[in-house]
Amino acid sequence: MDSLDSIREAVLGQIAAAQDADALEAVRVSVLGRNGQLTALLKGLGALTQDERKVRGAALNVLKTEIETALGGAKAKHEGAALDKRLAQERIDVTLPVKADSDGRIHPISQTIDELIGIFGEMGFTVAEGPHIEDDFYNFTALNIPPEHPARQEHDTFYLTPRAADGSRKVLRTHTSPVQIRTMQSQKPPLRIIVPGRTFRSDHDATHSPMFHQVEGLVIDKNIHMGHLKGCLIEFCRTFFEIDDLPVRFRPSYFPFTEPSAEVDIGCSREGGGLKIGAGADWLEILGSGMVHPKVLANCGLDPAEYQGFAFGMGIERIAMLKYGIPDLRTFYESDLRWLRHYGFASLDVPSLITGAR
Ligand code: DAH
User: Fold this and answer.
1) Distance separating alpha carbons of residues 329 and 343, to the nearest angstrom
2) Is the minimum distance from the CB of 288 to ligand 1 under 6 angstroms?
C-alpha cells in the first residue's frame, strides 16, 4: 500500500507540473498506457490469491480513478488556457475604419439586388426563387402565352433538347415571370413577392446580353386594384432613384399575362446628348406591369372572382446602368478588375441598403 501512496504522490505531482497538453499526454501514457506503471500493476493482479486480489484490485482502481480525474481536470485547464491565448492573439477590432485600398468590391448587380430587396422588403415583400432551366409550361403556357403566340419568338429563347413526349422542350427561362406561377401554385394568398434572378435570351449587343437579370414582383390578395399597382411602383421609382418628386407615367401596353398592362416611364431630360433622370420633358421606359390576367390566376387554381393582383418586371442591369451611369451592359460580365474598382461598392461602407456608397 505504501508503494501505491508514493505512486499517487509522484503521478499527481507530474500532472500538476505538466506545462501543456503534450506533456500531460506523456504522463498519461507513462501511467495508464499499454506499458504504463499502473497498467503493469493491474496486470500483476492475476498472480495473486483471490483474497489478495480483492483488496489490491480495489485499491488500484481507486488510484486509477483518482489519476484519471486529475488528468481530466488538468486537460480542461490546458485547453481553456490555449483557447484564451488564441482569443487574445486573434483579437480583431471591428470598429477600425474600412481600409480604403481594400481590394474587394460588391458588383453593381449584387448592390442593386440588395437595394431592391431593401426597398420592397420595407413594403412587406419577401424574396422568391425558381429554376433557371424551366418547363415550357411555366415560362410560357401558364402565363397565357400559348404555342404559336408571337411573344415566343420575341423572347429569343434558348431551347434545350431533347423534346419531351408531348413535343415540348425545356427552356432557359426568358424572364422571371414563371416564378409567379410557381409561387401561386405552392403558396396561399395573400402573396407579396419579388423575384430577383438570372434570365436568358439569345441576344448580344451594347444593351443586351444572353444572360441578364430581372426582378419580378407579384401581389395577390382580395380587392387589389390598379391604385395599389401605381402607388407601389411610384414609391419604388422615387426611392430607388432617390428623387422625391420624380415624375412617373403609366403608359398602356400589352403583355399576355396582364390585363390591363402598363409600361412605366420616368421623367428625364436628353438635352445636350446626356441623360438626366428626374428633370425635363422626356420619358424613359423602365419597367412593365399590369393586373394579373384572370386566365393566369385560373391556371394556378385561383378564382379570379375572389382574388386579384398586380405584377411587374424589370431589367436589373438597365436600372443599375441608369442609376450608376454605366454606359455598356457587356462590361458587367467582363470581370475586368479596373471596371469593378470603378463601378463596384465597398463591402463594409454601405450607409444604407437603399443608397450605395461610392
Ligand atoms: N416578363 C416581362 C418581360 O420579360 C416583363 C414583365 C412585364 C413582367 C409585365 C411582369 C409584367 O410581371 O406584369 O418582358
Assistant:
1) 12
2) yes
Q: Which residue's CA is the nearest one to ligand 1's atom 2?
A: 313
Which pTM value belongs to this model? 0.71
CATH number for the domain spanning 180: value is 3.30.930.10
Q: How far is the CA of 314 from the centre of ligand 1 (A)?
A: 7
Which residues are registered as beta bridge partners of 194? 127, 217
Q: Residue 2 above 80 pLDDT?
A: no
CA distance 18 to 71: 10
- CB 144 near ligand 1, within 6 Å: no
Residue 200: CB within 6 Å of ligand 1? Answer: no
Cell numbers found for residue 158: 434558348
Q: How far is CA 345 from the centre of its chain?
A: 18
Give the list of residues 6+ apart from residue 56 with CB closer than 8 angstroms, or none: 45, 48
Which of 176, 214, 224, 255 best tests ligand 1's pocket when mutated (most atoms within 8 Å of CB)? 255
**Ligand 1 close to Cβ of residue 313 (< 6 A):** yes
User: Which residue(s) pair with 213 in the sheet?
Assistant: 198
Q: How far is the CA of 312 from the centre of ligand 1 (A)?
A: 6
Is 158 within the bounds of a domain? Answer: yes
Q: How many domains does the chain contain in total?
A: 2
- Containing structural domain, residue 83: 2-90
* pLDDT of amino acid 357: 45
Q: List pLDDT tens digits, range 251-263.
A: 999 999 999 999 9
Mean pLDDT, to the nearest integer, of 28-56?
91
For residues 253 and 185, membership in a common domain is answered with yes
